[in-house]
Amino acid sequence: MTKKNILIIWEGLPACSLLISELINQKDISLDLAFTKPKVPFKNIKDNFKGINRIIELSNLSEISKIKKLDFYHLVICTGWKSRITNKLLLRRKKFNKSAINVCAIDNTISPYFYLNSEGGLSGTILKQIFGAIYYRFFLRKVFDYCFVPGNSSSLLMELFGHRSDLIFNGYYGAYKNIYFSNNVFQEKENQFLYVGQLIERKGIKLLINSFMKYLKNNGTWKLLIIGGKESEFLRICPFEFKNYIKHIPFLQPNQIAEKMRNSKCFILPSLYDHWGTVLCEAALTGSLLIASDQSGSSTDLIKKGINGFTFNSKSKKSEEILSKLMYKIEKISTHKDSHQRSETSIKVASTYSSSSYKLAIKAMLE
After folding, report:
1. Cα–Cα distance between 98 and 67 in angstroms, integer?
2. pLDDT for position 259
């Protein structure tokens, strides 16, 4: 049996990279992983990939030129296309190996901003994506055979960029079931809303806190747990009189976050603009009900409106009022006898974004 040699080049290796575990265990595949360190590291990264052929740690993507025999790999997956050195090397290897397969893994979505983003920069705007589309159509389309995306929002973007829809595969992101799972019934969970992420404007953190304050003033009874960001950042945005109802934890490892998800009845992702938002999938797999903005890429993939959660427009002038009412609706429907069916729906939907999905998509590319 001839093994297929695969190289994954992952910038800012995230916790969801554990999805490659089933691919590692395939007897007909030899897998190498090259990565740069993530902004939010998780412990013992290399210990999580037992059985992998080789692990290569890079300081930046430009060091990809140090990897010898790049033409040797049957398939190379690269996150994004911003490294020109990497793009040139991938194009070069196709000239030397006609059967070589290059894959661009991308989680971007169509931006809601035209000129400037929420931080006043050009990054993540329609204007920049227009330039990106031109660059992709005239140069990168001949570099990459497939696009590997997490969900429909990223698939739509790559179609607009000119990539054929039949060559865009799902499975790039998801939740690792050995960490994110449900081990309790829904009614055993705490009456608590949970948010996990950075405490920055783009993530909608002010929208969340202001909406929660409205919810409390309208006789809401649940608490809110926020995980992520610095304590000083939290204190700047949380009014003193609500600190008994809002708890903040600066940083936790993935297994600790999963435990908090299992103990919370509802997860909220209120982003003003986000890519796919893997954290929503992770929360769903633990059985949480979901509230997410339409501007969060994974909301359309994971939320069955009115069944396992709700979506809303975070750009609306009435977004705070709308979100606060959705919180109150979650509180009410959670008391119903059939609320466990809503929780089970979250688990069923999220289970299709898994390490099995990652493996199956890659094996389909090889055929």
Report:
1. 20
2. 97
Of the candidate CATH numbers 2.40.10, 2.60.40, 3.40.1350, 3.40.50, the domain formed by 4-173+353-366 belongs to 3.40.50
The CATH number that domain 186-350 falls under is 3.40.50.2000
Q: In angstroms, what CA-CA distances link 163 with 60, 104, 112, 120, 175? A: 27, 11, 21, 30, 26
Whether the Cβ atoms of residue 277 and residue 292 lie closer than 8 Å to each other? yes
Q: pLDDT at residue 102 above 80?
A: yes
C-alpha to C-alpha distances, 278 to 2, 19, 107, 195, 282, nearest whole angstrom = 34, 12, 10, 13, 6
pTM higher than 0.85: yes
Tens of pLDDT, residues 58-82: 998 888 888 888 889 999 999 988 8
173, 18 contact by CB (below 8 A): no
